[in-house]
Amino acid sequence: MTANHFLSLSIWLPILAGVLVLATGSEKNACRTRWLALIGAVLGFAVTVPLYLGFVNDTAAMQFVEMAPWIPAFSINYHLGIDGISLWFVLLNSFMTVLVVIAGWVVIEKRLAQYMAAFLIMSGLINGVFAALDAILFYVFFEAMLIPMFLIIGIWGGPRRVYAAIKFFLYTLLGSLLMLAAFIYLYFEAGGSFEIIKFQILPLPLGVQILLFIAFFMSFAVKVPMWPVHTWLPDAHVEAPTGGSVVLAAIMLKVGAYGFLRFSLPITPDASHALSGYVIALSLIAVVYIGLVALVQNDMKKLVAYSSIAHMGFVTLGIFMFNAMGTEGALLQMISHGFVSGAMFLCIGVLYDRMHSRQISDYGGVVNTMPVFSAFFMLFAMANAGLPGTSGFIGEFIVTLSAIQVNFWYAALAATTLIFGAAYTLWMYKRVVFGETANAHVAELKDVSGRETLFLAILAILVLAMGLYPKPFTDTMHASVQQLIEQTSVSKF
Amino acid sequence: MSMFSLYLLVPLAPLAGALLAGLFGKALGRTGSHVVTILGVAISFVASVVIAQDVFAGHLFNGTVYTWMTTEDISLVVGFLIDPLTVTMMLIVTFVSLMVHIYTVGYMHEDPGYQRFFSYISLFTFSMLMLVMSNNFLQLFFGWEAVGLVSYLLIGFWYTRPTAIYANLKAFLVNRVGDLGFLLGIGLILAHFGSLDYATVFARAPLLAQDSIALLSDSPVSLLTVVCILLFIGAMGKSAQMPLHVWLPDSMEGPTPISALIHAATMVTAGIFMVSRMSPLFELSETARTVVLVVGASTALFMAFLGIIQNHIKRVVAYSTLSQLGYMTVALGASAYPVAIFHLGTHAFFKALLFLGAGSVIHAMHHEQDMRNMGGLRKYMPITYVTAVIGSLALAGIPPFAGFFSKDAIIEAVQGSTIQGAGYATFAVLVGVFVTAFYSFRMLFMTFHGKPRMDHHTREHLHESPWVITVPLILLAIPSAVTGYLYIEPMVMGQYFGNAITVLPGNGGLHAMREEWHGVGEFIMHGMMALPFWLALAGIATAAALYLKWTHVPAAIQARFGGLYTLLDHKYYFDRFNEVFFAHGALKVGSAFWHKGDVSVIDGAVNGSAHLVERFSGRLRRIQTGYIYHYAFIMIFGVFILMSLWFVKA
After folding, report:
1. Distance, CA of A85 to CA of A328 (rounded, Å)
2. ipTM field
3. What confidence tens digit (pLDDT) does each residue in B110-142 have?
4. Bridge partner residues of A71 (DSSP)
5. B555-564 long-range contacts, Cβ below 8 Å, gap at least 24?
6. Which B residues 226-265 touch A at CB under 8 Å?
7. pTM of this prediction?
8. Which of B66, B141, B191 is the closest to A388 by Cβ?
9. Contact map slice: B 549-608 vs A, CB within 8 A
10. CA–CA gap between residue A77 and residue A188 (Å, rounded)
11. Who among A293, A367, A478 is closest to B598 (CB)?
12. Exposure of B213 by Cβ count < 10 A (0-12 exposed, 13-18 middle, 19+ buried)?
């Protein structure tokens, strides 16, 4: 592997840009602040592009590895690297940050510099989560990324933002403390090392594995979020500003599932198998129960938040099928969900910026005044409903195909999303977009601006491109997923 | 140009038209939009004709266009299978689509969504072509869902109408119920056959004929039966078989051209096509075929009854479509797949003709659809009238029109079949013949004959439709008249389909029919002496008696049999049941999960534990009073306790 620092750049460049924005920005020079933030975000994305271009598909080994001692006393290292599992999350995260900056361009009037800085810094921290190969480094990024999000919800959020922010923070913090305990245990077991790769090859008795699995599970299930520890998500989404919702749905939720793939499965394979029944049950509950709950929501953001939980149910289901197809399906579902849920929240943001309401009943007949917007929204709604040809289809399809190999009824329950997903998404679409112009406010709506068209069009192209040709995505995954499946299938005691 | 690029051209030309009209409709203008889309479909049609000649010269094709993705050594691809079954569908789809495109120029010329409409119907044509040209289950599912999407968009084309946007949501959701079964069927195929490629799956099918799977504990069922029934559930959604038929009548909310193209001639026949394509699988499961047969027969009969009492012209045609789809399904159940495709073809022509004829009437009547306000139109609209007569004769199954051949072939096939349920199916299709002839001619008489019942203003403006409407009618009337006569011998009796369709020896009545075949002339002679023909004539005669001569009788019958009428008027209460049980039920359950589950229990626990901590810390806080003597007291107390412990231990 050639020595380069693209991963470090992808972490620290946005953080530096964020600090710079914070330091120089003030209410007076909003324009400069915006452009500075955009340049930071675009550069942040640009440095991740070589990660894809230089990625070697046919190896499961970590790539773009960087290694330096950090706290030698405890042999904690600044150890970075990515494989086919983490590659896309780094790209997705850096990419979505660009869109979020564009989406917040003129909408954010209060504390603009702090807002932009929070997203840039968060972007770097999240890249750190996906790139860290040292458990403590991972833990630091994992906790640190919560702080900007906590501030984003707490400062730029809606009326109940404080409740939502604290709920979000406590929920996610509670779980991660157990994870830290697990790391410390593993540190001693591994003979004084926090290397994740060393953790993965440790032999562990089943009892210990189960305790470790539960510790990890508490931490990651909250992040995904899985039923029944999901109730922070709808509140967080409803109160968060649009950009916050986008990052939360598109990136942060993926951290939990990534944790399963990086920690739970390879470190505690026997416990994963032993407890998989519970995880599968929770995943299927997420699909069916949450699907029905989404149906009765009156708030658009809450509806999409619940639909996110249902979609993430497919992710955990796919992961715990323990076959390559399921895992790849889960990864595809996560990438697609990044695009689609991001797009859905951006669409709702476009409406909210004009009407200052997220209540479905305040809308009706939006198509009459915003035809271009309605066309984009239709595409994303269909993607959310898993229509073939859009990215939303692939993950659900592949996970269902993998589930049916394990048990017909897993697949049958999961596939009910075909009906529920279409029902809650298209029913919302019908009530918001179709029909006669509902009221004077809707009659005055202006169609999407050039800036809005830009980010919606970019996402639309991605949703279609991935839906029509997902092969480039899966090609990068095969080797790493295959190795993961082999690791998971070998008993450790 | 190589054949392969020609194959590609067939779906891509309409796609290009759709994209141009959809994205640049404003720049192209109305004329520009209809020119590019019509051109796209016309190219597609011509290419299909060329390909058809090539196929019947013996050049088949089965190959990959591109690899969609790979996972676990399985390649999911987009590819084409070009064989006689495919080209037959390609010809039907592109021809009817072309007619509908031209017709739309006249029918929609005042509509503000003109470009959007052309974009949608071209997109539909693309999707449908991808569906029929597929060589694998993945692409089949793609096309399957894509046509569903366009159907959704087109039913809700007039998006401000509450009924239209209700109907399109309903159509999409009911179809999704079918798709659920379809997807699971595809999933089982991949899991057990290890491939989604048609050729591979069909080749392995006989080896897996004896396999079974345990769906519910310790009761293994035949794998292929489960697979076929699941696939058929998909077909039931798309081809509107009971009880998933409920969306089709409501889909009439869409503009009439799409009722003709999508909800009569092509998309709704996707299920019929799919089962025929899967004949190597269905042939191996008698249980599945019985299910197919019974569902088809029930649809054919019960939906025909509903056609009798409809007053809206398009609804009559819609129920007749349901019933005719039932006939095709019966043919599938009787292993007479070529007959099903034959009827699919003739039906596509005469049903598109009837729908477009109905549209011509509606257009002339200023969007009036109620036949009770029509009457006597034949004087004003001679071309529409004559073509409607041809369509109705074809639908009723009167020789020598196309429907006669295809419907008689179905009846013979099911009569000759020994599969369980064949007796019921025979009864259903025979009664259906009478009912079909009755409602077809009831419609014809109510619309075109008798005294004009429209208001004075409408009557003054009555006129024949422009040529863009009448030319497609004429061009559809010709195949409605002659295709039966021309194609029954090669398609049903001969080896037209080659290896595209599999019928195992001993299954169904097709083999017997082929043995008894003595040419088309004898078939007509034989048909005219058989029961179905006389049933059809009786149906027409009854319609004439009730709607031309004794016009007061229908009302009397309706009053006399009030209970029966109510049952039919409520469409056997399917809609009511779905609304109350499924729609409201889902909302109630969802609401309960939300309020009871999420808010009360889970958030109750979360907030409760937060409050508990708060209260606990509130108590704890009181210890920190800030008074030195309190702290000193507690310290001394602590020392005392520790010392006592130390003493006890010592």
Report:
1. 9
2. 0.89
3. 888 888 889 999 999 999 999 999 999 999 999
4. A76
5. B558/B309
6. none
7. 0.89
8. B141
9. 586-587, 589-591, 593-594, 597-598, 602-603, 606
10. 16
11. A293
12. middle
